Amino acid sequence: MSIESAPGWGASQVERVVETVLPTRYGVFRMVGYRDSDDNEHVALVRGDIEGTSPLVRVHSECLTGDTLGSYRCDCGEQLDASLQRISDEGAGIVIYVRGHEGRGIGLLEKLRAYALQDQGVDTVDANTSLGLPVDARDYEQSTEILRDLGVTRLRLLSSNPAKQEALESGGITVTSRSGLFIAQRPENADYIATKRARMRHDGEPVQDVWRQLTEGIVPQGSLHGLAADLLTRYGPLVQAIRPDGRLVIGQLGQSLDGFIASRTGDARFVTGSEDREHLHRLRALVDAVVIGASTVTADDCLLTVRAVEGTNPVRVVLDPQGRIPHASAVLTDGAAPTLWLVGSEAVVPVDLAGHVGVKRLAREDFEPHRLLELLADLGHPRVLVEGGGHTVSRFLEAGALDRLYLTSAPILVGDGVPGIRFTGSDALSDALSAPVRRFEFGRDVCTEFDFSAAVLAPVA
Q1: Is residue 55 over pLDDT 70?
Q2: Which end of the chain is less congested by CB atoms within 10 angstroms, N or C?
Q3: Known catalytic residue: 136?
Q4: Active site residue 138
Q5: What digits encode the pLDDT tens for the residues 270-292?
Q6: One-character DSSP codes across 131-149
Q7: Where does 241-457 sit in CATH, by number?
């Protein structure tokens, strides 16, 4: 079948030709093949159920050298891999692989001619114009038609290129958000990436600069847009909430809509999606120490490091009065970050611990949340993230020790399992714990931020 173009577009049409299944290292995708009126062939890789959602979508331009040959002159192949991985992590989404876009639409051999000029020191923009070629000859009409054929009119775009968003929107697609896939640059592609940011409007340094300032405790000033503005909106107030003595205590938890962080078997991978996990890594990068209970270490064998974003790994603080976490746990064996293992006075711990692990014995009453925070502040860790599990976060919440709580709800119902937030409640709803809130959409998940530093009682209905 063919798909008619949206009003205002040219006469080009896209025909759906075939559908099959493609198993990959990122999971199983539905693969739909298309042909356009210029005889270019395209594919859409569809993961999971996208009906009625605003799925993650990557519109990826063909790049033989990067996607297939593993070239380091660009970041295309790594962007494609990152897109498939992120969509797989979320469980649903689309990658549209657009043929005929080689070299931003100038073709493979012309791209190689442009490479030869770049070898002499010319940047990617001037190389194209020196050859009498456009800087970017791509169009995205075929992509909008493919999206409509798949029933998608609203999406979250995986791209650092605002031109892609503008093209899709002019074709009648609503882009609810756009986030970049920031791949660590290499010496071989640093100039290429810098040129995209400086001369082709790609997101990059503003985002990195804003985030770097936030991790340094600085709230950037001035007009921002895109992901940089989103980061400032989301985390700027958190940085501003750091008290004069440097203290800030954050709680974070991801749970199902019915309040569970794991199934009855302890399976917690993954309750929330990839965007919430990126948010968690950002919180880690903003603090000095991340606190976690022994049960979570035992169940999840978590690393507790900053991996998805730029930042410094916090000190990993394990609350383990009985000294019961497995001795092969990542927090004890992986030296990517220091670990402070807090155990009871009678706990038995190995004598041959790795150099990154420090042990401190505490009396039973010293595991009380406020005393723990005093200890961490005295040790030079005043900014603290209480990450898990549900029992540990709930203890700090009930003790009134949290300045902020980020509670992300995933649209799933577990039925029974490992509970999330639980504490001794009140008899009357008018006495329920509440606070000013903000909400953020992380894909299908919704994160609610409670500001307990300005807590109020819930209003009486």
Answers
A1: yes
A2: C
A3: yes
A4: yes
A5: 789 888 998 999 999 999 999 99
A6: TT--S-----HHHHHHHHH
A7: 3.40.430.10
